[in-house]
Specification:
287 residues; alpha+beta; 8-stranded mixed sheet; globular
Length: 287
């Protein structure tokens, strides 16, 4: 994914936007953490097995209130509320995932995150990922690097963890629209899994992106991913030093105006990327 700063200059102070987004994400995380251990009423969302809870809507309402107060003219695309228009001709767009991992929360598994991204002319320029379970927050600015929870620069470790040079740990994600009998998804997932020590399916892509940015895992593969949580996590990992490509090995362009078919990705430590692409590129020719 390209990380050069967009031009012309943005009509927003990104440092201030980062502050607003971090505070909104952390406030939503506090709300989620205070309620997640209680009864969770999960309702079906669509026909693909996704669910929604009152935690999603409450956290989203909190975030939207803060974004509207700080940037009343910006457009917003929110997981539960959909598209909220801004001022006429506005090019700044927020993407809000108030609870990435709702299915996990619904079954009592504490693996979830809050994600916000700010896009300029469809290109992500700011990403924030907050983990309510640990209280940690990571953020990134396009072309200016990533920051960890302590405010220090976040970069991939120079080497993978011992024993993982030839046996990487990977994560997998796929969009809710992908059916269980999708043959292409099965071939891709099986091919990648055969070449790693372990492949995680977290049901919370933002958690996977943060793990990649920290070096906890070595790569991440996504098939027809959801757009609302993709920019924040992908920007974080890219700015920390991970490399992103399309499944066929071509450069990855992350824009919220791109069709789902162009959003499938391979993200990995630089030295692992070619190995993963050997598998995904062969599969991609059959997609």
């Amino acid at each position: 994914m390209r990380t050069s700063a967009p031009s012309p200059p943005l009509p927003v102070d990104l440092a201030e936007a980062r502050r607003v987004a971090v505070e909104a994400a952390e406030a939503a995380g506090t709300l989620l953490r205070s309620r997640v251990d209680g009864p969770v009423d999960a309702r079906p969302k669509g026909s693909a097995g996704d669910v929604v809870t009152e935690l999603d809507t409450a956290a989203e309402a909190l975030i939207l209130e803060r974004l509207r107060a700080a940037y009343p003219g910006h457009r917003i695309i929110a997981e539960e509320s959909g598209i909220l228009e801004g001022a006429p001709g506005e090019e700044m767009v927020w993407l809000v995932d108030p609870l990435d991992g709702t299915n996990n929360v619904a079954i009592g598994m504490p693996v979830y995150a809050v994600g916000l991204a700010l896009c300029a002319r469809a290109e992500p320029v700011l990403g924030v990922v907050h983990d309510p379970v640990t209280g940690r927050t990571w953020s990134a600015l396009h072309g200016k690097g990533a920051l960890g929870p302590d405010g220090a620069p976040l970069t991939l470790p120079e080497r993978p963890r011992p024993g993982r040079e030839d046996n990487p740990v990977l994560a997998w994600t796929q969009g809710h629209q992908v059916r269980p009998d999708d043959a292409a998804a099965f071939r891709l997932r099986s091919g990648v899994e055969a070449r790693c020590a372990r492949m995680l399916q977290l049901w919370a892509p933002l958690v996977g992106w943060a793990m990649l940015a920290r070096g906890d895992i070595d790569g991440f593969v996504g098939y027809l991913p959801e757009i609302v949580d993709l920019p924040a996590g992908a920007l974080l990992a890219a700015e920390a030093g991970a490399e992103l490509r399309r499944l066929d090995g071509e450069p990855y362009e992350l824009g919220i105006d791109r069709p789902p078919s162009e959003l499938s990705f391979v993200a990995a430590r630089p030295e692992l990327l070619d190995r993963l692409l050997e598998t995904t590129a062969a599969t991609a020719t059959a997609l």
